[in-house]
Amino acid sequence: MSLRNSADLPTSDPYLPGHGDPAWSATHYALDLQYDVSGNRLRGQVVLDAVAEHDLTRVVLDLAHLRATKVTVDGAEPAKYAARDNRLVVTLRRPLSAGTNFRLLVKYEGQPRPLVDRHHGDAGWEELEDGVIVAGQPHGAPTWFPCNDRPDNKASYTISVTTQPEYVVVANGELALRRRRGATTRWTYQQLEPMATYLATVQIGRYELRELDASVPMLAAVPPDVGDGFEAAFGRQPEMLVAFTERFGPYPFPSYTVVVTPDDLEIPLESQTLSTFGRNFCRDDWDAIRLVAHELSHQWFGNTATLREWKDIWLHEGFACYSEWIWSEESGGDSADTWARRHHDRLADLEQDLVLADPGPELMFDDRLYKRGALTLHAVRLTVGDDAFFDLLRSWVTHHRGGTVSTAEFVAFAGDRTGTDLDDLFKCWLQQPELPDLPAAS
């Protein structure tokens, strides 16, 4: 369904007004960026392969704070293009019929900065003291490239960034090229597996690259003076990978990278094939370790199996929170049941106004959603038993690898896969605001 704002521009998801156009879908983004770190100047070009979902007379892209300087459609100039409300509206010279493949080229430039949303704060391209982070979730992608910013439209990516040679560039996927030319170095990454726009990222800094001994290629981009804190926080990350592979199925991408910025960050940043942490997370306490597990688990729950609508965010965050508890019991800490009952007691004393399956944009990142989502999974585990529960998780990821998912699909899948009637359980945990009791531990 296409919703309309006051400017008659499309919105694909009511949780994120003013983003996304359901009338067309991207299939591949080829990004070519030139970035001056010292001046925060970005010049970019995107070649965007796409398909018309409906008959089109215009194509609406998301682009915030940056100026388009050239646009072509299948190699020819459009009738016109114009910037409106953090969108780029391209009026076609000739209409495109539904099902038609087409190619957009957009050149653009400017000084990128985060985009501020009244519900979700700021997200996007952000300068550090000496470098860049890109935090895409949920609305930051348009701050650095023209896109169709909707989570149900996953595409492959080629991301090339040219910048000063003293900086390391990390982006999604596999490094395909690193080439020094004069006063710049060009880095090219290929993300072949489908990816939602909010998971696309670029990290730029004076990093050193380290290889970790893991069951899949695992890298770390860290400040040279990161010290012993990195090992304290991330030293068991390869073990986490083994544990999650056993519980969730094969790791869904060719490699995994963790970036540690020289700056402190309030929270870690999730993106496909990599996660970004501030230096302040280089600690050995549980509140740091659990977030290392949390972000790694998003590669299964969020990155390969991605929500179709933002109202289903518990399918990402509830699963990642439960993964923290799984790592705790796998690594000799408190059991998932202990964590579940501890957080259940805490949530029972809080306001009961959150409906997990449709929390609203104001509460979609509320900590209660994370914990109640994890508690929902624990209730399923207690009901069906460990063997059936972890078979359910593995099968869910395998079945939806590279695709998009919904709460209704998970509810139906869980009942079918486990052979158990879970309708009443899910109704209580997902559709009603009151916190249900947990089943008794077996």
UniProtKB/TrEMBL annotation:
It catalyses: Release of an N-terminal amino acid, Xaa-|-Yaa- from a peptide, amide or arylamide. Xaa is preferably Ala, but may be most amino acids including Pro (slow action). When a terminal hydrophobic residue is followed by a prolyl residue, the two may be released as an intact Xaa-Pro dipeptide. Its EC number is 3.4.11.2. Keywords: Aminopeptidase, Hydrolase, Metal-binding, Metalloprotease, Protease, Zinc. GO terms for molecular function: aminopeptidase activity. Pfam families: Peptidase_M1, Peptidase_M1_N. SUPFAM superfamilies: Leukotriene A4 hydrolase N-terminal domain (SSF63737), Metalloproteases ('zincins'), catalytic domain (SSF55486). InterPro entries: Aminopeptidase_N-like_N, Aminopeptidase_N-like_N_sf, Peptidase_M1, Peptidase_M1_aminopeptidases, Peptidase_M1_dom, Peptidase_M4/M1_CTD_sf. Residues 236-429 form the Peptidase M1 membrane alanine aminopeptidase domain. Residues 27-199 form the Aminopeptidase N-like N-terminal domain. It is an enzyme of class 3 (hydrolase). Its cofactor is Zn(2+). The keyword Cytoplasm does not apply. Belongs to the peptidase M1 family. This is Aminopeptidase N. It comes from Nocardioides bizhenqiangii.
